[in-house]
Specification:
The chain is an alpha/beta fold. It is 13% helix and 27% strand. Strand 20 (188-189) and strand 21 (192-193) form a beta hairpin. The longest helix is centred in the first third of the chain and has 16 residues, at 21-36. It comes from Terriglobus roseus.
């Protein structure tokens, strides 16, 4: 059977980015360079920029420098989330971070892919969700349609192509179950585990 790839017939005209060309250009040419800049002194200014361009961002969110957000208007961030340096939120469609979510350095959230069965390599999109307390480790990759459920962890460098159940840790490529996540009852202060009175 003859098979061929025909990229000249690629057509994503069905895709609706959610804002006008001018609005997208304003983000790409003005908003994003300022948002990414290490010279921008605070998370509050980054949060303000995201909100100005249509993101829903909760309270106490910390966003470090060099973070890339494709389309702020497709981004939902809950309260007290941390987003590390050089994280990349490639959100052609909705990305949702619940409360107390950590997206570590250089983590990549991917909401778009291509159909390898299609000779014209058709675009496919699906949302990504990190539920309350989830953590995507440094350099982890979350693929389209994935959900990290409550308290779930994607280990550093992992490639996640399936949902991670609540309070479980997955790692590797592809990411597989490693262990359950148990939260200590004793707090850590200044890197030292403290005893709790009583």
């Amino acid at each position: 059977m003859s098979q061929h790839i025909d990229l000249k017939s690629y057509d994503n005209s069905w895709y609706e980015p959610g804002r006008s060309f001018l609005w997208r250009a304003a983000w790409m040419l003005l908003g994003l360079p300022l948002f990414r800049s290490p010279l921008l002194p605070s998370s509050r200014l980054r949060v303000t920029l995201l909100r100005l361009f249509g993101a829903c961002v909760g309270e106490g969110v910390v966003i470090h420098s060099e973070v890339v957000v494709k389309y702020p208007w497709h981004l939902r961030i809950g309260d007290y989330c941390w987003i590390g340096e050089r994280a990349w939120i490639d959100n052609l469609t909705t990305v949702t971070l619940g409360n107390n979510v950590c997206l570590s350095q250089s983590a990549y959230i991917c909401t778009g892919n291509h159909d390898w069965r299609d000779p014209s390599f058709g675009l496919m999109i699906a949302p990504v969700t990190l539920s309350d307390g989830a953590w995507a480790g440094a350099r982890s990759v979350l693929l389209p349609g994935v959900t990290l459920n409550e308290g779930a962890v994607a280990g550093a460098g992992s490639v996640v192509n399936q949902n991670i159940p609540s309070w479980q840790i997955y790692a590797g490529n592809p990411a597989l179950f490693v262990r359950n996540r148990t939260i200590r009852e004793r707090p850590v202060r200044n890197g030292v585990l403290e005893e709790v009175a009583g």
